[in-house]
Hints:
The chain has 13 helices and nine strands. By secondary structure, the chain is α/β, with parallel strands linked by helices.
Amino acid sequence: MRLTDTFAALREQNKKAFIAYIAAGDPNFDKSLEIMHTLADIGADVLELGLPFSDPLADGIVNQMAADRALKAGMSTARTLDLIRAFREKNQSTPLVLFTYLNPIFTYGFGKFQKEAVDAGADGVLLLDLPPDEAALSEELAQNHGLSHIRLIAPSTPPERVKLLAAQSEGFIYALSRTGVTGGHSAPAETIPAQVAAIKQHTETPVCVGFGISNPEQAALVAKSSDGIIVGSAIVKQVELNLENPAQAVREFTLPLIQAIR
Ligand SMILES: O=P(O)(O)OC[C@@H](O)[C@@H](O)c1c[nH]c2ccccc12
């Protein structure tokens, strides 16, 4: 269990998790693979791979453009699984979580997707538009073939649902620092500690916070009141700005963020 092992080791060392989000296949298959290895090399604890989808309703412009680049370069659900297999040839230890929406998984087939994702070397999945009650209804989803289902909790999530989601979430809990879409340049540091504490009342599962973290100061601040942080758009932006050699730009930008929480 790569996810649980990673979080257990971090907890033991009193360390916070750094979770890096990129779009699978952005700007193309080979460069994306190189970026994944680079992020693992510089110490990212978990990689979150966005499965490119044409209607990513919770994504801001930076992530939308990344998904677009990936789709134009031929990415698909099947190719994303190939990318995971290719990554696992050299890296068997860094947990990988897939981020996506119900639609592409539904089209592919829930059972088939979950089984193939685990076989390829994925550890978890975050289905952004899967309500918890629906999850309970679907037997196909419940039989997850060992793929951890990570749940999102927003500041607007009502308390009873926080309890339900916290109990259901496997691996870790993704707490959104604010409502809206991904990106932007700030996470509201004032409200995060209480939000994380409210979730922690219901569970021992680690709570990581994402949305709007884009510099070392914010990274350190948010990490202080949580078990880890998720950084997406700010890393993806480096790919956008350096399409020739994105891995190097990602390394230079991300390393200080990781160092800030160590
Ligand atoms: O981009 P930000 O603000 O750093 O937030 C992380 C985010 O990109 C990543 O976790 C993610 C990508 N797509 C999403 C859709 C919804 C919620 C979260 C996500």
